[in-house]
Amino acid sequence: MSLELAAPRQSAPSVADDGVWLECIACSEQFAPFDDIRYTCDDCDGLLEVRYADPPTWDDFEGRGVWRYSAALPFAEGVTLPEGDTPLHDVPRLEEDIGVDRLRIKHEGMNPTGSFKDRGMTVGVRVAKELGVDRLACASTGNTSAALAAYGARGGMETLVLLPAGKVAAGKIAQASLHDARILEVDGNFDSCLDIVQDLAARGEAYLLNSLNPFRLEGQKTIGLEIMEQFRDEEGDYPDRIVLPVGNAGNTSALYKCFRELVQSGALAESDVPKLTGVQAEGAAPMVEAVEAGNDEVRRWESVETRATAIRIGNPVNAPKALPGIRNTGGTAVAVSDERITDAQRALAGEGVGVEPASAASVAGLRKLREQGRIAADEQVVCLTTGHLLKDPDAAFEAGDDPEPVPNDTDAVLAHLADD
Ligand SMILES: N[C@@H](CCOP(=O)(O)O)C(=O)O
């Protein structure tokens, strides 16, 4: 395994602000973090990463939630609801059924708006305030828009969200609507919405808060920090593998960055870095295609379809960060059918863990990789579930059993129950 950490700690370049700067992952050009609005490199258009002169160790963390990890973030506090500190569930029946040594579910659906996006928004909206912007915007399959609307409202800022018409789950639109985002439904898929939001941002019409924004990923990094601390608190060791759904590939990128910084600070041995394993739906699997073919670039899929609407994405913008994350940690990627996703959603629900379809993709992927013998029985695994069951009530109704009508009478109810 190589985390490509050849460079030890970097000393802060002259552009740094309090030991923080932006750096292009393609050409290494460095930029001041808050003097101007930029999402990609001015020179080569490569993706930007937030860099720190002094990456933190475990002792630097105190408090709860995302801001426990402020030593790993560009600010000490943000626009908060608050977020993070989500449960790491044990799921004994599922663990035995799938056949791994230890299985835990990191349920990000327990964040304030019901998805991990809140972790990114608490940081992203704080940065927006620093930059003095007044309109925030995102493209979304639903969860990003819900989080942006809520955190924008919290910060007293105007929000604009572009959604693929007819392809966003009801709960998510309801959230964006009630939190007073201006909602534009685009006759196209998520990738087209993101193209438009990028254009709007380039024209200075809005501040983009999708995961192309490097500060969003800083907040999402705390998922990795929390998993490592919670897992270690149980039995003193770290997970061998983290399995996660892949849409725009922000979490894969953020977790990889989290582990690189921990290794860099000496808080984590390179041999203890979990293998990042991405799961996509078969109908939207450009990252899996690239991993399987050994390609360095991800081909944009123009046509995508899956019941797991949160990962219905054909052009993952963070692919140049996420592909090395999967490869350099010794992980892999796998595509699963919608049927497998629904089965996994039911299995999680049977353990009391309610998730939306895209979230269940992680468990579906783990099961498939075990069946194929690509994951060993002695592995300790964390599956990330990204959004709450109530995000997509229609999918939950379809996966669950129908209510049974009964008369308004106790004896009739007992007769009905005995009838089974
Ligand atoms: N599933 C996402 C798609 C956008 O991803 P982002 O992390 O780049 O904002 C959503 O909820 O909209």
Automatic annotation (TrEMBL):
<comment type="function">
    <text>Catalyzes the gamma-elimination of phosphate from L-phosphohomoserine and the beta-addition of water to produce L-threonine.</text>
</comment>
<keyword id="KW-0663">Pyridoxal phosphate</keyword>
<dbReference type="InterPro" id="IPR050147">
    <property type="entry name" value="Ser/Thr_Dehydratase"/>
</dbReference>
<dbReference type="InterPro" id="IPR000634">
    <property type="entry name" value="Ser/Thr_deHydtase_PyrdxlP-BS"/>
</dbReference>
<dbReference type="GO" id="GO:0004795">
    <property type="term" value="F:threonine synthase activity"/>
</dbReference>
<dbReference type="GO" id="GO:0009088">
    <property type="term" value="P:threonine biosynthetic process"/>
</dbReference>
<feature type="binding site">
    <location>
        <position position="143"/>
    </location>
    <ligand>
        <name>pyridoxal 5'-phosphate</name>
    </ligand>
</feature>
<keyword id="KW-0456">Lyase</keyword>
<feature type="binding site">
    <location>
        <begin position="247"/>
        <end position="251"/>
    </location>
    <ligand>
        <name>pyridoxal 5'-phosphate</name>
    </ligand>
</feature>
<dbReference type="Pfam" id="PF00291">
    <property type="entry name" value="PALP"/>
</dbReference>
<feature type="domain" description="Tryptophan synthase beta chain-like PALP">
    <location>
        <begin position="79"/>
        <end position="387"/>
    </location>
</feature>
<dbReference type="InterPro" id="IPR026260">
    <property type="entry name" value="Thr_Synthase_bac/arc"/>
</dbReference>
<dbReference type="InterPro" id="IPR004450">
    <property type="entry name" value="Thr_synthase-like"/>
</dbReference>
<comment type="similarity">
    <text>Belongs to the threonine synthase family.</text>
</comment>
<dbReference type="InterPro" id="IPR036052">
    <property type="entry name" value="TrpB-like_PALP_sf"/>
</dbReference>
<dbReference type="InterPro" id="IPR001926">
    <property type="entry name" value="TrpB-like_PALP"/>
</dbReference>
<protein>
    <recommendedName>
        <fullName>Threonine synthase</fullName>
        <ecNumber>4.2.3.1</ecNumber>
    </recommendedName>
</protein>
<comment type="pathway">
    <text>Amino-acid biosynthesis; L-threonine biosynthesis; L-threonine from L-aspartate: step 5/5.</text>
</comment>
<feature type="binding site">
    <location>
        <position position="386"/>
    </location>
    <ligand>
        <name>pyridoxal 5'-phosphate</name>
    </ligand>
</feature>
<keyword id="KW-0028">Amino-acid biosynthesis</keyword>
<feature type="modified residue" description="N6-(pyridoxal phosphate)lysine">
    <location>
        <position position="117"/>
    </location>
</feature>
<keyword id="KW-0791">Threonine biosynthesis</keyword>
